[in-house]
Amino acid sequence: MNILAIETSCDETSASLVSNGTKVKSVVISSQIKIHAKYFGVVPELASRAHIENINPVITETLTKAGLSFGTFSKKIDAIAVTVGPGLAGALLVGVIAAKTMASIYHKPLIPVNHLEGHLYSSFIENRSIRPPFLCIIISGGHTELILVEDFGKYKILGATRDDAAGEAFDKAAKMLGLEYPGGPILDKRAEFGNPDAIKFTRPYMKGSWDFSFSGIKTALLNYLKANPVKNKRHLNDICASFRQAIAETICYKAFEAAEKFNLKQIALGGGVSANSLIRKMFDQEGRKNKVKVFIPSLIYCTDNAAMIGCAAYLKQKECGLGLSYTRLQLTPTPSLLLENWY
Ligand SMILES: Nc1ncnc2c1ncn2[C@@H]1O[C@H](COP(=O)(O)OP(=O)(O)OP(=O)(O)O)[C@@H](O)[C@H]1O
Ligand SMILES: [Mg+2]
Question: Would you say residue 324 has pLDDT above 80?
Answer without folding.
Answer: no
